[in-house]
Amino acid sequence: MRDGFEDDGGREPPKGRLVYPFETAPEQGSGQAVEVAPGVLWLRMPLGGSLQFINVWAIADGEGWAVVDTGLQTRETSQAWRAAFADALGGKPITRVIVTHLHPDHIGLAGWMTRKFDCRLWMTRLEYFQCRMLVADTGREAPEDGVRFFHAAGWDEDAIENYKARFGGFGKAIYALPDSYRRLSDGEDFEIGGKTWRVVTGQGHSPDHACLWCPELNVLISGDQVLPRISSNVSVFPTEPDADPLSDWLRSLAKVKATVPDEVIVLPAHNDPFEGLHTRIDALISGHERGLARLEKKLAEPKRVVDTFGALFARPIGPDLLGMATGEALAHLNCLIGRGRVRRDIDADGVAWYAPIAGTISSED
Predict the structure, then answer these.
(1) Distance between CA 177 and CA 95 in Å, rounded?
(2) Parallel/antiparallel/unpaired status of strands 230-232 and 219-223
(3) Euclidean distance between CA atoms 247 and 262, whole angstroms
(4) CA–CA separation, 57 and 239 (whole Å)
(5) Which of 353, 312, 352 is nearest to 329 (CA)?
(6) Nearest alpha-carbon partner for 227 in 113, 105, 72
(7) pLDDT tens-digit profile of 196-227?
(8) Phi/psi at 58 (nearest 5 deg)?
(9) How far apart are CA 212 and CA 221, in angstroms?
């Protein structure tokens, strides 16, 4: 599962600047780390593809280290962690594994690591149980609900056959999850190595994503909730076709801005640590609002989901991005439906067509 698209291709000039305080980044898979705050280490694990790596974090915790996010379950990632255990982490044990959310690049090796060090997995309840649900789909045939969902979006037969062939692959990148976990809750304070960290959750990219904020260290581990150079994927899926995750996402961004001060150093899952949290949140919100406005204009004539990609994405959408683009386009369309701007009509073939509600588009829109 991919984490996000690049921003909207410079269609709108950025307002304000982000600052990247670290001149040197850890080499991915090297076992080495960069200290970004007292007792907080930055490591990179290999991903491949356009993202190339994921940032993971180790926080000094008594006689060991608390790890935040793990990377995919691959041979390369487990080798990189073994190198890190011996090098950057100095042979000390892992005391707990904290996972921001359920996507395989974040939770992939959590089961391996908790078993290796006999420690607990920490994550929010919805993320843990939805991850177990998705892993349980491994090896199943694609459900008819999913076929109808993508047919309604305007997929052709080749694309649907590709969906059927790839269905159930989520769990292949995840080591068997532990059968118990320690729940993180929004607003909860807990200690790591004598310092207090607060859980700040967000929705939209995933069900109940946990960010970790330490006021004493002035850092926010943001996971995929706030990324400096890409916008996290916000999608509708066949399991909940009428969901409005984009509204959840926009509310969550506003909540993070209201909760966490602008002066923190943000430690994101992708790209580099940065300063300028509120500037970046403002840019993410305005970027989606511009996308909604472009999309609404495109619907002057009724469109299928697959006809709307040009309003939202700067890059061409090929087979490798079709699923993510469809989910994100539906998130924007469902948001417009929720705002009373757009309606959905299903034709005799089961294909959905989207059009403005009469009277909502004027010459001033």
Answers:
(1) 17
(2) unpaired
(3) 23
(4) 32
(5) 312
(6) 105
(7) 999 999 999 999 999 999 999 999 999 999 99
(8) -125, 130
(9) 5
Q: Is there a contact between 104 and 173 (Cβ–Cβ < 8 Å)?
A: yes
Q: Is the dihedral of CA 257, 260, 263, 266 positive or negative?
A: negative
Give the count of alpha carbons within 13 A of 318, CB side only: 1
Read off the pLDDT of residues 263-291 as tens digits, 9 standing for 90 and up: 999 999 999 999 999 999 999 999 999 99
> What is the rounded CA–CA span in Å between residue 343 and residue 282?
28
DSSP-based helix, strand, coil % in the chain, nearest 5: 35, 25, 45
Which residues are paired to 334 by β-bridges?
none
Q: Do the beta carbons of residue 86 and residue 117 sit within 8 Å? A: no
Torsions phi, psi for 23 (to 5 deg): -75, -25
Neighbouring CB atoms inside 10 A of 24's CB total 7
DSSP-H helix ranges across the chain: 75-86, 104-107, 110-117, 125-135, 144-152, 157-166, 245-259, 277-298, 309-312, 322-338
Q: Sign of the CA dihedral 75, 77, 81, 87? A: positive
* DSSP per-residue codes, 4-15: EEE--TTSS---
Q: Which helix H or strand E contains 222, and what residues bound it?
A: strand 219-223
